[in-house]
Amino acid sequence: MKKSNIAALAALAATVPTLAQQTKPNVVVIIADDLGWGDVSAYGNTTIQTPHIDRLAREGVCLTDGHATSSTSTPSRYGLITGLYPWKNKDAKILPGDAPLLVSPQQFTMPRMFQQAGYVTAAIGKWHLGMGVGKIDWNQHIAPGAREIGFDYSCIIAATVDRVPTVYIENGDVVGLDPQDPIYVDYDHPFPGEPTALTNPELVKVQWSHGHQNTVVNGIPRIGYMKGGERARWKDDTMAQYLLDRACHFIDSVGSSQPFFLYYGLHEPHVPRTPDTRFAGATTLGPRGDVIVEADWCVGQLMQKLEDAGLLDNTLVVFSSDNGPVLDDGYVDGSRGTRSQHDPNGSLRGGKYSLFDAGTRVPFFVYWKGHTRHVESSVLVSQQDLLASFGRLIHQKVPDGLDSRNMLSTFLGRRMKNRGGMVVEASGRLAYRWKHYALIPPYEGPKTNATGNELGVVDDWALYDLRADLTQHTDISAKKPLLLRRLKRAFLKQVKGYYEPHHAQETLK
């Protein structure tokens, strides 16, 4: 972190009243990228050990039916940050690396709420919410961005590790940019003379399986085209350490002088999976298993930093994932062949991109030393409820009209209750969860589930009892007609104006 950034944070800390410092807990939200419900050993997986993540579950609230709002990254993170269903924003879909800022600077957001309560806020790691307006000039200060929606400090990657530009952006500026070697990015047309995976396959060290055949950086073909910025380009295998260091520096810069909110976006186990040499071979599952162990280590290091700084007693930590798992997501790294050894879904059906439960049901743990005890619960909860719950925690009013619900007593393990009916989204398609029931409307398209990219395609309304049928293979709609009608009515009421029926009989009179 630059000295100027540290000085700015220190100056900001000096303006916060002492009483607020003493009474308001720090809040850290850690969001992994494509981590499955079955990928953490806290839920019973025995092939990958995640002791540091497990500690949060073992000493905190272990939620076994916790959900992201979407089965893909951008809409999921939009729902978390804004407290709104992402399907209400037509632009909340998987963004390219040069997309404009998705969240309006005028919107109420989680980090802005913390700022209003006197917190210093930071976003570090995976972003994927866009930045700037229109065509981005990566060689100038990029705004609006994280700062304009409530983050005092940010060090982020624009989208995903498989998309260009492959650079870190700190407070709106590309880190390490050489003005004599400007960056150019294009998602439609290659730059003449610049090598791609198709024109120069000899440069490729990590082979692509689909969709990743454009600019090659560090031997890895990406989505999109990039030219220039050689000195600024990240090293894939050191990314975990780099982002962890930024998070630890932020904690050091604020210390106990005032409360802070940290959004820490892990990039693992998203493709391309490139573990540091310390973790290569840590599992028998290849790169995907190894980067999960690396991510777990990062969580442990962050927790150790909080403990060493004397902040753990006053820091609430949430760990979750942006969506469910996927094995082959564009690269040939051996992950598809590990399915017989390790089930990242934990027996759930579907995966990333899916309306079936593995698409949005993700690891979800809440830990606050001295305030939470071990509670394991199957109540239905959503990440989008963190905003309203944090509002209650820090005594901040949230505006009317949000889809976020105050579930603080549940998140702290004090009064376990279901959040009520919840709409989930996958690639623009919608489904409904209520208690332990899942309702999926009919959608047209091919039925596939070989790689975990199940879209949730059914021929007619399907109803599943996940308490009796975790794998979602027994449709009970014919056996429970009254429940089916009740849930269809609740679903259609919530999505009115956003959901297009595929069959006339889908509407209820």
Key phrases:
single chain; 509 residues; alpha/beta; Alkaline Phosphatase, subunit A; Arylsulfatase, C-terminal domain; 3 domains; 10-stranded mixed beta sheet; 4-stranded antiparallel beta sheet; 10 helices; 21% helix; disordered C terminus
Q: If you average the pLDDT, what whole number results?
A: 92
What's the structural domain tally? 3
* Helix content bin: 10-25%
Which of globular, elongated, flat, extended, rod-shaped describes the shape? globular
CATH class of the largest domain: Alpha Beta
Main beta sheet, described? 10 strands, mixed
Strand content: 15-25%
Instruction: Tell how many strands the DSSP assignment holds.
Output: 18
Give the radius of gyration: 22 Å
Question: What is the fourth-level CATH superfamily of the largest domain?
Answer: Alkaline Phosphatase, subunit A
Distance between the termini: 60 Å
Low-pLDDT windows of residues: 14-22, 448-453, 503-509
Give the SSE order as H and E letters: HHEHEHHEEEEEEEEHEHEEEHHEEEEH
Count every helix, treating DSSP H or I runs of 4 or more residues as helices: 10
Strand order of the largest sheet: 6-5-4-3-11-1-12-13-2-14
Topology-level CATH name of the largest domain: Alkaline Phosphatase, subunit A
